[in-house]
Amino acid sequence: GHIELIVWGIPLLVVLFLSGVIWIGSYELDPARPIASRGKPIEIQVVSLDWKWLFIYPEQGVASVNTLALPVDSTAHFSLTSGSVMNMFFVPQLGSMIATMNGMVTQLHLRADKIGDYYGQSAQFSGGGFSDMHFTLKALSPENFNNWIVQTRQSPLKLDDATYLSLAHKREASAPILYGSIDAELFEKIATRQLPIEQKAADPSASHAQKTE
Predict the structure, then answer these.
(1) What is the pLDDT of residues 125-139, one digit of tens each?
(2) Can you give the residue ranges of every domain in the chain?
(3) CA 159-160-162 angle, 5° bins
């Protein structure tokens, strides 16, 4: 009767309300959800390494380590992977954190509304150099961002397979580095594990055989 309707109806309404709040909140806060922008988002590819961050600008043909620049009021679309263990990319003042995982690509959209420097960090413990795994995100005026790209292109360093493997094998923090040119397919090679950086362990049986000979 009416009592049963009230007893079951009120909890059901509460559950429906909370479910709606959770669904809407999850959609609104989804890191992969595009952010409204005046123009086309700038594409940035991110690789987490021990213990540094590699940023690749595929459309501009440049790259950097532990520093990156964005035009203010423009959305940046990040594609992220890891060349080592799982990590967490986080710029606290700009938005959500997102995981970087070996063999996978995650997506994140961010936008800086004010010109300035923003602190970025790893938000997940990943070994001895974890505390030094941070970077600076520079939000620049469109003109200064273009100037930054032009200056970066003047760097004689090229980011290719050999350069990447050398960088990845140095398991230490790094001062900012700028690369004036890149291998356009490098990020895909990293994300699909075509450039493994972990050295294979020696076969114990082979080592034992050598000792007994």
Answers:
(1) 888 888 899 999 999
(2) 1-27, 42-191
(3) 115
Mean pLDDT for all residues in the chain: 86
pLDDT in tens, 203-213: 333 333 343 44
Residue 66: pLDDT band by 50, 70, 90 thresholds? very high
Cα distance between residue 32 and residue 175, in whole Å: 29
- List the beta bridge partners of residue 140: 71
- 204, 158, 202, 159: which is closest to 47 by C-alpha? 159
CATH number of 42-191: 2.60.40.420
Q: Quote the CA–CA distance of 32 and 106 in Å, as a whole number.
A: 8
- State the Cα–Cα distance between residues 29 and 32, nearest whole angstrom: 9
Cβ-based burial of 17 (10 A; exposed 0-12, middle 13-18, buried ≥19): exposed
